[in-house]
Structure formats: structure tokens, C-alpha cells
Specification:
Distance between the termini of chain A: 73 Å
Oligomer: heterodimer
Distance between the termini of chain B: 31 Å
Number of helices of chain B: 2
Order of helices and strands of chain B: EEHEHEE
Strand content of chain B: 15-25%
Structural class of chain B: alpha+beta
Number of strands of chain B: 5
Helix content of chain B: 10-25%
Order of helices and strands of chain A: EHHEEHEHHEHHHHHHHHHHEEEEHHEEEE
Structural class of chain A: alpha+beta
Largest sheet of chain A: 6 strands, mixed
Shape of chain A: globular
Helix content of chain A: 40-55%
Number of helices of chain A: 17
Largest sheet of chain B: 5 strands, mixed
Strand order of the largest sheet of chain B: 2-1-5-3-4
Radius of gyration of chain B: 12 Å
Chain lengths: 400, 107
């Protein structure tokens, strides 16, 4: 067929350490190659412009998530765990589960939770305010979501480190099978068992989001098993993601002191700062869709059941959509940024994440005067998430 | 071009030209109207584009989906019978002249 000759092929490896340590220069190359590129190393398609990424994510009938959000093709191979009943499923089944989760993560719920977040954020910031130089990832950025998120769901304090390991597995499964992944998955049975046990009705504390999901069971909207799997979704995607997002936002602010000064002088800009950071350096750089049929896309023919890698991180830096895309500018109008994804599988916890981050950076603005890098930061190696394991910073407290 | 009028919580009125096919949320956000956030970009995910439809356009409005229904039940400002998420109100010729009121808060 003629069409195959039009396929633009690249040998870029989006999972290589080289690509992931500096994705933005690679995205520039990808975008220059055209609207859709074939990555021969993995036999997958890739889209990297704002418009093409949004087009794919908004057309769930053609670009399904039931084939798996990562490199593995669930239409052709067995998933590593029972698929998510909200993420890895299409309508009509998706609508019901999504509705139950959306409600549990809605503005109304969050309004009620906010004061507790504020107390916790203030305490964590107080603890480091006079430290001077320290590593912000283990000492500030990680402890905060690890406290407020499981508290909100209603998960007991013991054993919460399992959440981080499980999150690594979930997002690790987005990439190719490597020795790193196999080593990680050697603990899969034990960690998955802990997670599943904590998704059960009698394991979630009263008053939390977990209990709200079981209320949907009592109202006849979900089955008991579905409720457990939805809580598993919280626990899969609610902790690492916010640690990474807040960490990357903090790094961006440390590297752009004038932007930090804006937040410090007007803490109501904290939410805008996080939104801009999600465009500028999202913790979710890429995800996959799988075609349900053969489809023409921008002059190429994509076959049925083929994987399409969607670079959210590149969409945020696409000069066709953003003015000066490489500039971190918290006063930018960010509406339409797709760092949380878009469409029916857009991040269901995005309002939760925004609240966590807004409260965190407000607390920081009230207590801290200056934030400066104190050494190179270290990237976390997980194919499904971009984040930091280390972020040495020097902070000075505000004068009282 | 069809028009839509937004009444702010403070009573201020803004009338915008909204092309057919564009949502009221997008129109408001691109006009920098305060009172509509639309943080999720129109995915029925955030309920920060909540509006009250004031004009007699009920027949012409698209039906409320299951997910919108749930989100409307959990908006920051209490739901009313005429509540909608404006990302789901896509402009048509039949919606020309629609008037919506903005709630007190979105988050």
C-alpha cells in the first residue's frame, strides 16, 4: 500500500535513560518529524503536539484505554493485574465507576478536607523552616502526600510505605520489561496483598473517601468488588503522582526565584504556580492508547490494535499552542494545559492534586522567604512517571 | 454569531459571541471572565464551570450525562434545578441568547 511509505520512522527510545533525563530536547526532535511518528524500537506510534495528543485522548472510541495505559498491549497479552475498572475500561462501563469516583473527589468533598490539609502542610513546613540546607524530597515533599492522602482515603498509618512500592509497580508497568522492573515485581504478590486488604470495607476508616465509595455500594450504584477496585485506583495513582508533581513544581520555583517571589508575596498564586508547573514539567510525561480499528491519522494509517504513545509533556511545550513554551511563568493563562490528561480518562484525582499542591505552596509561602537549589537534583527512574528522588535546597525562613 | 450572557455573582453582566460548537466554559475562560475556572479543560472532571441557566432554553440544552449528574451533586456552591456544567453547554443556533448566572464559588 502507498500509505505505509508515508510513515515517518524514528529510532528514538522514549524509555532510555538519555531520553528521560532530557525529554524536552527529544520532544523538539519528535515534533519536528511530523504529527505522528513510528518508533521502530518498540513498534509503536507517537504523537507529540498539543493538538494531536488532545485529539487522540478525546476520541476514546478509536483510541481505547482498555488496551492498557502503558506499552503492554492488553488486546494481545495478559495484564499483570486485574485491569482497573475505571482507567482500563471504556464506556458504557466506565461512566458508572467514573461517576462514583468523581463525586468522591469533587469540590464539595475537597472543601471539607481542606482545613486538615492546611494543618498538616503547616506542620511539615514548620519542621524544615529553620533547617537551612536539606534534601526536600525525603524530608518535605514525600511526607506530606504520604500523610494527607491516605488519611483522606481512610488508610491506617502502619505499612503506608507499601503505597510507594505499589505505585512504582503500577507506573513501572507502563514501560518495557527491564531487569529493574523484574526486580521490583518480585515483591508484587506481597505488596498487592497489602493493598487489596486495605481496600476492603472494614479496612477503611469512617469519614474518609474510602467510606464514600462503599456508600455508593449501599446506594446500589456499585458492587462490593467494584468499590474495592476503585479504592485500589486511589491507592495506585494518588501518592507517587502528587509527590512527583509537587517535587517538580518546587524545583521549578527554586530555579526561578522571581516566580517564587510572586507566590511568596501573593500566596493565592500557589494554585496557578502548580498549574503552570503541570504544563511545564508534568509528572505524567506520556501515556498510551490502543486503536480499536484501522484509522487514518494526519496522513498515516494506523492499524487496528496498535499502540499510540501520547506525550503530554511535549504537548505542554508545543510552540504551536504556547507562547515561549520553555519559560516557566506562573501568570500564564494555562487553561487547556493537558498535563493531567484530557477526555474521559483525564486524571480523576486532579482536583485532589491541585488542592494538595495549592495548600502546600501556600504554607511554604507563609513561612519561607527564599528557596535556592543547593546541588543537582536526581531524577526518579520510573517509565510511567517523572519525578525526583533528591532535591537539595537551601531555604531561609520569613522574618516574623 | 450566537450570543451568551453571563451574570456574575456580583450582578455584573457580560455578553459574549460564542461560535457554534464552542462550549460556554471555553468562551468564558478565553474572555477572562472571573467566576468560571474550567480547570480540567472540559472533561467533566472538576465541576469548576458550574452555572445556573436562567433563560428559557431548557428544551434546547443537551441532556445531562451520568458523570455530569454526579458532579453537579457535589459542586462547591449548592446545586439548583437549573444547574449545569458549562463545559457541557455547546453553543448551537438554538441556544442563541442563553443567559447563565455564575455561582458564589467554584472550589
Amino acid at each position: 500500500m502507498l500509505v505505509s511509505s508515508k510513515r515517518v520512522v524514528s529510532d528514538l527510545d522514549p524509555f532510555s535513560a538519555e531520553f528521560r533525563s532530557d525529554p524536552y530536547s527529544h520532544y523538539e526532535k519528535l515534533r519536528a518529524l511530523g504529527p505522528i511518528v513510528w518508533l521502530e524500537k518498540y513498534d509503536i506510534w507517537a504523537v507529540s503536539h498539543h493538538d494531536t495528543v488532545a485529539a487522540v485522548l478525546n476520541d476514546w472510541e478509536t483510541y481505547s484505554n482498555a488496551g492498557g495505559g502503558g506499552l503492554a498491549n492488553y488486546f494481545k497479552q495478559k495484564p499483570w493485574r486485574q485491569p482497573s475498572i475505571i482507567l482500563e475500561v471504556d464506556p458504557p462501563d466506565h461512566q458508572r465507576t467514573r461517576a462514583a469516583l468523581s463525586r468522591a473527589l469533587s469540590p464539595r468533598t475537597l472543601k471539607a478536607i481542606r482545613p486538615r490539609f492546611e494543618d498538616d502542610a503547616a506542620r511539615f513546613v514548620d519542621a524544615i523552616a529553620d533547617r537551612g540546607t536539606f534534601d526536600a524530597i525525603p524530608e518535605l515533599v514525600t511526607p506530606y502526600p504520604m500523610k494527607v492522602f491516605p488519611d483522606s482515603v481512610g488508610i491506617e498509618a502502619d505499612g503506608r510505605e507499601n503505597l510507594l512500592v505499589y505505585g512504582s509497580m503500577v507506573f513501572g508497568s507502563f514501560g518495557p520489561v527491564t531487569p529493574w522492573y523484574e526486580e521490583l515485581m518480585s515483591r508484587s504478590a506481597e505488596v498487592s496483598a497489602w493493598i487489596l486488604a486495605h481496600c476492603k470495607r472494614d479496612a477503611v476508616a469512617p469519614g474518609g473517601v474510602g467510606e464514600m465509595i462503599y456508600e455508593a455500594v449501599d446506594a446500589g450504584q456499585l458492587t462490593e468488588e467494584e468499590a474495592g477496585l476503585l479504592i485500589r485506583s486511589f491507592l495506585s495513582a494518588g501518592v507517587d503522582t502528587t509527590i512527583d508533581s509537587i517535587g517538580l513544581c518546587l524545583r521549578a520555583l527554586a530555579e526561578h526565584p522571581q516566580q517564587w517571589a510572586l507566590v511568596r508575596e501573593d500566596p493565592s498564586l500557589a494554585r496557578a504556580a502548580f498549574e503552570e508547573a503541570t504544563r511545564y514539567d508534568s509528572s505524567s510525561q506520556s501515556l498510551f492508547r490502543t486503536t480499536t480499528r484501522e484509522v487514518e491519522f494526519a496522513g498515516s494509517t494506523i492499524g487496528k490494535h496498535e499502540k499510540v504513545m501520547c506525550f503530554l509533556g511535549s504537548a505542554g511545550r508545543d510552540p504551536a499552542r504556547w507562547e515561549n513554551p520553555d519559560v516557566f511563568d506562573i501568570r500564564r493563562r494555562t487553561v487547556g494545559q493537558i498535563g493531567f490528561g484530557v477526555g474521559i480518562h483525564g486524571c480523576v484525582g486532579q482536583m485532589f492534586a491541585r488542592l494538595e499542591a495549592e495548600v502546600f505552596f501556600q504554607a511554604l509561602a507563609q513561612r519561607i522567604e527564599t528557596i535556592e537549589p543547593a546541588g543537582p537534583s536526581v531524577l526518579r527512574l520510573n517509565p510511567g512517571l517523572r519525578g525526583l528522588t533528591s532535591l537539595p535546597l537551601t531555604m531561609t525562613p520569613r522574618a516574623h | 454569531m450566537p450570543k451568551a450572557t453571563f451574570i456574575g455573582d456580583d450582578g455584573s453582566q457580560t455578553t459574549l459571541d460564542v461560535p457554534v460548537g464552542r462550549s460556554l466554559m471555553e468562551a468564558a475562560v478565553f474572555a477572562n471572565l472571573s467566576g468560571i475556572l474550567g480547570e480540567c479543560g472540559g472533561s467533566v472532571n472538576c465541576a469548576t464551570c458550574h452555572v445556573f441557566v436562567e433563560s428559557a432554553h431548557v428544551e434546547a440544552l443537551p441532556p445531562i450525562s451520568l458523570v455530569e449528574e454526579e458532579m453537579l451533586d457535589a459542586t462547591s456552591t449548592e446545586r439548583q434545578p437549573q444547574s449545569r456544567l458549562s463545559c457541557q453547554l455547546i453553543m448551537t443556533e438554538a441556544l442563541d441568547g442563553i443567559v447563565v448566572r455564575l455561582p458564589e464559588s467554584q472550589v
